[in-house]
Queue: 4 jobs
Job 1
Amino acid sequence: MAEGVYDPGNIFAKILRGEIPSHRVYEDDAIVAFMDVMPQGTGHTLVVPKAPSRNILDADPAIFKPLFAIVQKVAVAVKKAFDADGVTIVQFNEPASGQTVFHLHVHVIPRFDGVPLKPHSGQMEKPEVLAENAGKIRAALGS
């Protein structure tokens, strides 16, 4: 797919349409948050707007307020759910930055003193671990 062209067949679009399963922790009319299947740390969660855009460079600015409100809500919940020392928030734009899925998304990763992030190795986490972590985050969100 050419740079700058949104591909409705990307994996996150398929997750949003329910074609691929996910461990969701939050959903409203505009935003979905679910577990990253290749986490760089315990509780690594993705916050994804339902509106199609490749990344922040072509997104409708109207999505930023609801997106980042939920990023904050999820960040507070993952910090609480995993008793984390901090939270890393990351968002990539285009291949040179490290973006590999071309649907706007924000990574929310609980962080622990002295524990480095795992490399993005392509190694998938066990579904039962993702389900357990999703349950912890949903509990922290109060849902």
Note: The chain has one domain: 11-141.
Job 2
Amino acid sequence: MLPDFTAHDVPVADGTIHARTGGDGPPVLLLHGFPQTHAMWHLLAPVLADEFTVVAADLRGYGRSRTGSEDFTFRAMAADQVQLMRALGHDRFHVVGHDRGARTAHRMAFDAPDAVLSVALLDVLPTLDVWRSMDAWLAQQYYHWAFLAQGGGLPQTLIGHDPAYFVRATLQGLSGTEVGFHPGALAAYEEAASDPDVVDAWCRDYRAAAGPDVEIDRADEDAQRGVPALVLWGARGRVGAREDPLERWRRHFPRATGRAVDAGHFLAEERPEEVTAAVLGHLRAARAR
């Protein structure tokens, strides 16, 4: 999906992180969400690469990244990505994350503040806020949060019977709209889902989010970081349906700015030009500081 980018498989402490790099300029790390891979950035990354060095990476256990660790907290995922960026020669960088990637960026900004120059958080609320607001309505919208967190191999077994169907149904369910994903991107997501290790990583990720991630976030829920932050969310999605995402994130990033985009959950693929313009504006402003 990024033919002009260079592929890397970079060893980190707990495994190998797969990434593709392109462009020249200040470094920007792009992190995808569930159930996707770095391919979700195929429309945004080439444009950013005109001004920035872009690193589009797969999260721990997702896509072509591999780990032997059982730790799938966002803290562990963030540590992977900091090690990746340092191995590529980038000690300080900007982070743009969607969904699980945004949660990883959030944790990275707190755990590695010297490394993170700015964050952009796409269509996500803080993990603690999601659990605290989980009621009948949200449980139906985000059923996968509890389903994937089940132990004993239950979700892995059920998904394994038809992983392509699960990916397509999940993408449609999370988008809340009739999204036309690029065939190449959809093929990448389905290919990843066909690997039982990737499905297991999804489940370990969500199991961590229901347990240790809650405790990690609770320990510094009143802490703040002064880095520039951009918050974008889909006007037709769930994230902003009952609260103001910008106000929620300003509790952690007081300098946050942002707005709703006329889209569902998958902003970068549904409204690529609008999201790219917003991210570019954010990165240019952060670079000028």
Note: Residues 272-288 form the longest helix (17 residues).
Job 3
Amino acid sequence: MTDQQVIPYLTYQDAAAAAEWLAKAFGFEEVNRVAMPDGKVGHLEMRTAGGGRIMMAEATPDYHGPRRHAEECEAARRWLSVPYVIDGVLVHVDDVDAHYRRARDAGARILSEPETSGYGKVYRVEDTEGHRWLFTQA
């Protein structure tokens, strides 16, 4: 497994497509997948370039990810109108600028361009289902 003490677990409407996109846009690598009898993803683990892990799965058809929720709910649209990471995942990378270009070129919704902050160099981005990510370089 990993020495990581906290591992984010995200739910996607289409975890297989999300994993493919996360690999392309963020450089994550799939390390484990458990399929359900109906073919949906029951559990999927990915490794970040720095060795961190995330886990994901598909929920019931009633689940609505952040992007879909915002399409159907005025309150969600308002709280997602800011470019900040709300209920998101922070990932350390070696080169924020290169990572940003990769994500942008893969069609990620960029929430903020790379900038230097009190946390180092950062940028914010949404994935295909609206989950928010903060990538940082110390």
Note: The longest helix spans residues 15-26.
Job 4
Amino acid sequence: MEASKLMSLPADCSTRDVARVLGLAVRSVQLMVDRGELEAWKTPGGHRRIARASVERWLKRRQGAAGDARGHEMAARAPASIDDAEGDTASRRSPRDGRREASCGSPQRVLLIEDSVHFQNLVKLLMAHEFPQVELHVADDGIVGLAMAGELQPDVLIVDILLPGIDGATLISRLRSHPQFQRSRVIVVTSLDEAQRGSYAFVLAGVPVVHKPRLVQELPALLVESLSPAG
């Protein structure tokens, strides 16, 4: 983010000011306040005010988290020995093409970008029971999720709409703009009902959406379809 955009914020910001500078939905900023990620208080009229210094601290934490995520992924991919490096040569010949065919023995990957621990655990249980052969990776905010998506190039992304860092709609738009993600399937999970999702309709067009109360019933079938070789 350009420093000038951050400095354009007043010392005490509204949620709309912060959402504009961070590129988030106002509701996402409100959730960040509710979770204690941003320091805020209410005016006598009941309006939230957020300290600009709090936004600066939040950005530094998230930038550090994104760097850690990239570092962890690089460390996980690094061979433990020379023998491991030689054995892994084939998988490293063309890492940018994003193709890991099941016939070559490489596992498929699913990246879940979801800030709710409850739903993280629910998806983990579903994956372990229904898709034990598939690697599941988890990010709990949009910034880290975007960094991990670049490292993993997953077969499927499961994305919540209301995320800290970058909201799910913005994240999906950014992924669509990069050719390297054209092969990745996207599934949206959200607590928003159909009427509440109206402002995200353009981004969600053609994307399967699972209402969280129906996650257990609907997500497995969508994953079967998205992970199928024909897909």
Note: Confidence is low (pLDDT under 50) at residues 75-104.
